[in-house]
Write a structure and sequence with these properties.
Elements lengths: L24 E12 L2 E12 L3 E5 L6 H8 L9 E9 L2 E2 L7 H7 E4 L10 H10 L7 H11 L3 H4 L12 H13 L5 E5 L7 H14 L4 E5 L3 H7 L2 E6 L3 E7 H6 L4 H7 L5
Parallel strand pairs: 3-8, 3-9, 6-7, 7-8
Antiparallel strand pairs: 1-2, 1-4, 4-5, 9-10
Helix pairs in contact: 3-4, 3-6, 4-6, 6-7
């Protein structure tokens, strides 16, 4: 699926370490810094993200969590003042190389935003839009159904796909947005606090869905909810003030026995 993204002759790097829990690395940041004008939002971040696992990004407000997430599929390209230094590799290929097509990249790396943002279209057209914008036109009915099934929404909407996506509940709208993101069959799904605007029942549904999606996709989630990170993630990265990645490791270790005192202070509520 990445032929348009990865140039011929590039060998995919496969690295394993304790931070990736012995999983195959799909994403790797190396000395990554991001600036908005003169303001540094990320400060020399280096980490690996394992394939088909859930990686949680946590930390206080303004620490660079969302900037890091948006860097992974070059959403920051849309901000004219943004400048990126270092490398961020997807299957061994630096996504900021000049020969990388951002549109092809975003097909491989989809994104779900904090607040549900369905289009003022039918349920069917919301999901189909995610396909059509990528130039996919064949087997549309099947693709829409499969995306809705993977997003655990099909059984609730199958009888009325012409219904406006705006008429769904908040939790259903977010699952519709997830269906739209996975319809082009990406390898990675980025989620920026996907449950922060939802009630506890809808939040639980999204968390269950994330765990199911990780069986097929790599999921990277930014969350301000440390309990949520502890529940659903395999790997946790802790960013602190100044866009600094302070510690990354298996979630059980980060929440049970972090190596860095600043991380322990943050986890236990002593600051942040």
């Amino acid at each position: 699926m990445n032929e348009a993204l990865v140039t011929d002759g590039i060998t995919h790097d496969v690295t394993t370490d304790s931070a990736s829990i012995n999983g195959e690395t799909i994403l790797e940041a190396e000395d990554l810094s991001v600036f908005y004008g003169e303001t540094r939002a990320l400060n020399h971040v280096s980490m690996t993200i394992p394939e088909r696992q859930v990686t949680a990004i946590i930390g206080p407000s303004g620490c660079g969590k969302s900037t890091f997430l948006r860097s992974i599929n070059r959403m920051n390209d849309l901000i004219s003042s943004c400048r990126v230094e270092g490398e961020l590799r997807f299957r061994g290929k630096n996504i900021y190389d000049t020969d990388v097509d951002p549109v092809a990249l975003r097909r491989a790396i989809g994104m779900v935003f904090q607040r549900p943002n369905p289009f003022p279209k039918s349920i069917y057209d919301n999901v189909a839009y995610g396909l059509k914008i990528q130039g996919i036109e064949d087997n549309m009915d099947h693709r829409v159904e499969q995306a809705l099934r993977r997003a655990a929404l099909w059984d609730e909407v199958a009888d009325d796909l012409s219904k406006s996506g705006l008429d769904l509940s908040g939790g259903q709208q977010q699952r519709l947005c997830i269906a739209r993101a996975i319809a082009p069959d990406p390898e990675v799904i980025l989620m920026d606090e996907p449950a922060s605007a939802l009630d506890p029942v809808a939040t639980a549904q999204i968390e269950d869905l994330i765990e199911e999606l990780a069986e097929q996709y790599t999921v990277v989630i930014v969350t301000h909810n440390m309990q949520q990170a502890a529940r659903i993630s395999d790997l946790t990265a802790v960013f602190l003030t100044g866009g600094e990645l302070v510690e990354v490791g298996p979630t059980a270790q980060i929440f049970g026995n972090p190596e860095n005192q600043r991380v322990e202070d943050y986890i236990t509520g002593k600051f942040g």
